[in-house]
Every structure is written in C-alpha cells, then in structure tokens.
Amino acid sequence: MQERVKTSFIPKASLQTEKRRKPSQSPIGIINVITSIILIASIIAAIGIFLFEGFTAQNITRKRESLERARAAFEPATIKELARLDARLDSSQVLLNSHVAPSLLFDEIERQTLSSVRFRDFSLGESGPGRLMVAMSGEAASFNALALQSDIFGRSLFFSEPIFSDFNIDTSGNVIFSFSAVVNFDEIAYRGTRAPQNTTPTNTGADTSSEQNQGENTEVTP
Amino acid sequence: MRTLLPVLFLLIAGAIFFGFIDPTYENVKTLRAEEAKFNDALDRSKELQQVRDQLLSRYNTFSQSDLSRLEKMLPDNVDNVRLVLDFDSLASRYGMRLRNIALETNDTRAQRGQVGASDSKYQSVVLSFAVTGDYNAFRAFLEDLEQSLRLVDVIGVSFSSSPQGVYDYSVSVKTYWLKP
Fold first, then answer.
1. Is the pLDDT reported for residue A220 higher than 90?
2. Is the pLDDT confidence value at A194 over 90?
C-alpha cells in the first residue's frame, strides 16, 4: 500500500536564524592603504624634487648670465687702469713721505762749522734701511775749537750720536780728527720748498762765537 | 598576493626615496648654495658698479698732464738708460759729466742683505755715478736731483779735498718704479 504523503506547513525543523556577519577588519587591508599612501607620497615627492631641481638649475644659469653681463659692464681694462693709478698714488705718497734732501744737511754743516775748523772729506751713506750716516775727517786750529765744534754739532737737531774721534796733531800743530753721526731723518726730509736758512748757530760759547762761519760763502771745505 | 602588495609598495617607495629623492635633494642643496653665492655676487656687483662709477668720475677729474707727470714720477719700469741720460743732461747744466755709472738692483742688494723681502707696490734700484766739479755746481746739481720729477733719493755722497777746488764726487741715488 502506497503511503500517503503527508503534507504539512509546519516545518519539521526549526528555522535557522541567519546571523549577519560583520565584515572582518583585516590588518592586511589597513597596511595596504598605508603603504599605498607612502608610495604615492614618494612618487609625488620625487616629481616635486625633480621639478625643483630643474627650476634651481635654470635660476643659476640665468644668474650666471646676469653676472657675466655685469662683469662685462665693469670694463676690466678700466678697472685695471684705476687700480694702477691707485697703486701709483699710494706708492708716490709713501715715497714722497720718505723723500730726503741731503742738501739740507750741507746747509746745516755750512752753518754750524766754525771758521777755525775745516773738513777734508765727506761721506754720506746708508748704514741700514732708512738710516743715513755721515762721516767726515778734518782739522781744527786747536783743541778748544774742536771742543766748541763738538758742542755745536752735539746740539744740532740734524745729528744723533755724534762722535769725534781719531785725534792727532799734524806738523802744523792743527788737531786732526774724524767725525761721524747718524743723520736725523726728519731734518733732511724733503719739504717741497727749501726752508729759510738760519745763519746763526744754535748755541755757541761766549768766547768763541766769533769763530763761527757767517753768511753764504761758508761751505763744507774739503 | 594580498599580503605581498604592501611589502612591494614599501620596497618601491624605499627605492624611490633612496635611489632618487635623497641624492637629488643633496644635489638641490648644493645648487641652492651655489644660487645663494650668485645672489650675493649679484648684490655685490651692483654695489661695485656704484663704486666704479664714483671712481671713474673722480678719475676723469685728473688732467691728462697730471696723469703723465705722475707716471713720470713713478714709472712702470726702471728705464735706466733714460734716467742716466736725464741725470747727465742735468749735470751738464753745471759743466759736469756723469762717469763710472753703475746700477745695483734690489736683487743684488738683497743678496748682500741690504734689503729684505718687501710687499710694497714699487721696486727700487740704486744708481751710482761720479761727477767732477766745484762745490757750488755740485750743490746746485744735488738740489736739482732732489727736486727732480722722477723721484730719486740721494742716499750716498762722498768727496775729498783737492787743492784746485774741483772735487770728484761719488753719488748714489735710489730711484723707484711701480711693480707690474
């Protein structure tokens, strides 16, 4: 006998409720996003720095050209000429400041030499850089005259370290001597125009002042 | 595959950074420093331009004759032949002639220890010569030398007595020229 099929609307098994499953937050996805951002940022930075490099290089080229134009505008030949003139002016000033006029020394010797004293030879020379030394030998009528001459030269502003030496008496009874001194540079410095000559000796002894050479006819008498 | 992707991204990003961005940045820093120098040079060139204009206007106030006198005072070279000629012509005014002319350069003086190394803009030479004449003529000649436009310093004079009143003078003068 055929079994009857029993129909029923009542489910035999209880209905299973479908739980909605939340999508799982996978860490792989987050890392993907972060690394993608890093990659994109790197690409953007690379493009940016590439462009900036090109821009800077262009700027430098432009400025180099401007500088070349400015250099050309300076006219190097003119600058050289100006620099040469500057050097010439500076050097001339230095040389003029140290320019000497030994004729002033001759004037002084002429003024300060006693008539009872005469010089046989004269020598002026450099004893060192910027240092002039005068040396003379001569004869005096007496030791007194020589002493007075020594006193006068000792007071002269033209001489420093004046030394009288090598005294001797010649056959005529005159006193032979040598004289040397360092010439005071300031006194023989060139002043452009010659200073008026003072014919009066700076100081003489009372009893021998008449022995002074006076006037223009006095000279260093070799 | 999904797990490899971030690693790949990071590797590419690292390669971009270390392979391109970092060296390019270093290069940019160098370029920026160079650019700063150019900026500075351009600023200074503008200042120099102003100074040059000022100097040029001052230079133009010098007369040509003053410039040539200045050049004669301190020439560009020693020109010793011209110097001797000038001195001889000067001496001849007083009836004297130059003799025994000798030239001593700075080098020979330095060898003798008379001059040391100098950083000055000019050089000097010592010219020695002899003249014969009476005292007054020599004094006048000496004063002319002192006042000569060509700058000369008399650094040595020597003479001895003679009964005739005409003496032999040995003279040393130092003259100068501008170094090139």
1. no
2. no
